[in-house]
Amino acid sequence: xxxxxxxxxxxxxxxxxxxxxxxxxxxxxxxxxxxxxxxxxxxxxxxxxxxxxxxxxxxxxxxxxxxxxxxxxxxxxxxxxxxxxxxxxxxxxxxxxxxxxxxxxxxxxxxxxxxxxxxxxxxxxxxxxxxxxxxxxxxxxxxxxxxxxxxxxxxxxxxxxxxxxxxxxxxxxxxxxxxxxxxxxxxxxxx
Length: 191
Description:
By secondary structure, this protein is mainly beta. It is 3% helix and 49% strand. It is found in: Cytoplasm; Secreted.
């Protein structure tokens, strides 16, 4: 007879499902699984709304009138939240937007040696088996600003969604954060 301490015994919660199938709870899975969706507009530090214009292949923060907001073309986002086994990285999310009768998802692609934010026609998957160019980690912008966030690209640590002035546009871009403690207002996004 061997005496065991409670620390040595692994206990897995189980439940009996339909057709008497046995299911294990609390086990980590390798895939990101969609948990819930939020419907929001995205604002920058200047209270401008992010507007997607796939016909022009651009997403930019713009001043929007109440009338334009009601029509909502390209500015009402679905934020798809995924379950994660690594919560310290932040909440994994993907973005999509409905324009007329088409759905577009946000992704990042390398073009001429630099990362570009794009919106591609299609749906966000329910499960993502591994790494993906559509996932961003939602993080609180600062500890004293709980309603504003920054979104780190999952495939490149330290790269965040931000805006950059390009002519008259405040274009959505990926931007490298120079220091972890840096507070960069161009990365601040309110929901």
